[in-house]
């Protein structure tokens, strides 16, 4: 987790007029300078959603929430990519004992089908003998 000092430096970068808060035009300008493109309405909606005191601006506290939410999105994307590596080709959207055994073998770990079935069983919340993405996400936390 980043420290508040890091968030403050980033906030200062976005805060062009130095008032300690980020306005919709400031956010749009800085995102544009970083190669992104946001419509002014998208920026206004994002600020509206995160603005804790209703002044139409993002405070440091609001900005920290935004950055932490972005971090969660990134973690979810990483989890989805990891899940895909173990995904079963025949039963798409699940990790089966067979696909787990295959992936572990690629990683240099030799496990028997019994061991893989037991590993799956440990995190298989609904008892179907497979790991869904939701079960995988719980397992990784």
UniProtKB/TrEMBL annotation:
EF-hand domain sequence ranges: 2-37, 38-73, 111-141
Keyword Calcium: yes
Keywords recorded for this protein, A-Z: Calcium, Metal-binding, Repeat
A Pfam cross-reference name: EF-hand_7
One example GO MF annotation: calcium ion binding
InterPro entries, per the entry: EF-hand-dom_pair, EF_Hand_1_Ca_BS, EF_hand_dom, EF_hand_pair_protein_CML-like
Record PANTHER family: EF-HAND CALCIUM-BINDING DOMAIN CONTAINING PROTEIN (PTHR10891)
Protein's name in the database: EF-hand domain-containing protein
